[in-house]
Amino acid sequence: MKKLQLSDVLNDAIKDALANVHTTTLAIVTAVNTKTINVRPVINRQVDGVSRDLPEFIEVPPIFLQGGGSYTSYPIAIGDYCLLLISERCFDRWYVGQDFVSPAEYRMHDYSDGIAIVGINPESSAITIPTEIQRNGNYTQTGNATHVGDYDITGDYEQAGDMTIVGDFKLTGNMQVIGNILCTGTISAANFTGTAGGAMSSSVDIETTGEITAGGIDLSTHTHDYTWTDPGGSGTTNTPN
Fold it and tell me: What's the topology of domain 6-122?
């Protein structure tokens, strides 16, 4: 039997302790719960020279960027990769709402205390680093949004609710309105033309409580001069009824 030196015993103890001090590792999402995810590390451990895969870790909280009541959350899918961060102490009591208390268990750097940052990819599916901020996929905005600068859209645009525009509105292309158009200002015909500068047409009635003026003539108040020959005379028509 080989006689171990004290230094050998100490080295083995240090190696064993370091092997069980978990910091970060890469994992894959195996299940998506309401507020947590299940993940499984994809890098095996070496135990006595034997490669051993690790089990699934359940109910791991994911990290979303948040400040105050504002946050950005992403739909997480099975098969996404994540960076699993291991807390140095048990955070069970913090997770259920208790701050500034002792840990529920005296475990340190344990796989049970993982938090996931989802969104890391291997080289084959890595996202190309862009020159501008890019957003890919659908999103829902809750709250106010302020945009300064040009806004380009490729595709359909749907809005539920009112839209208020302060400033000019320029449309290149046809506009179809299902419903009423209400105007509290003046519609100037000088720059209000149809396709390629053509006439503006409507297949339904156009109603207004204001005045319609064309060529300097008011629609609701104009009159016509007329003459007759038998017997001769002249006069002016009444305004339209």
Answer: OB fold (Dihydrolipoamide Acetyltransferase, E2P) (2.40.50)
Among candidate residues 202, 181, 200, 179, the one with its CA nearest the CA of residue 189? 200
**Got the DSSP string for 28-88?**
EEEEE-SS-EEEEESS-EEETTEEE---PEEEEPBP-EEETTEEE-----TT-EEEEEE-S
Which phi and psi (to 5°) does residue 223 adopt? Answer: -125, 170
Q: In this structure, are residues 82 and 117 in contact, taking their beta carbons and an 8 Å threshold?
A: yes
Sketch the domain layout of the chain as residue ranges. 6-122
Rounded CA separation 116/81 (Å): 9
- φ, ψ (nearest 5 deg) of residue 83: -100, 120
Distances (CA, A) of 67 to 60, 70, 72, 167: 21, 5, 9, 32
Other beta carbons within 10 Å of 60: 24
pLDDT tens sequence for the chain (241 residues): 566 677 776 776 667 766 667 789 999 999 999 999 999 999 998 877 889 898 999 999 999 999 998 999 999 999 999 999 999 999 999 999 999 999 999 988 888 999 999 999 999 999 999 998 888 888 888 888 888 888 888 888 887 788 888 888 777 777 777 777 777 766 654 555 444 555 666 777 777 777 787 777 888 888 877 777 777 667 777 777 6
Kindly tell me the burial class for residue 36, based on how many C-beta atoms sit within 10 Å of its own C-beta (0-12, 13-18, 19 or more). Answer: middle
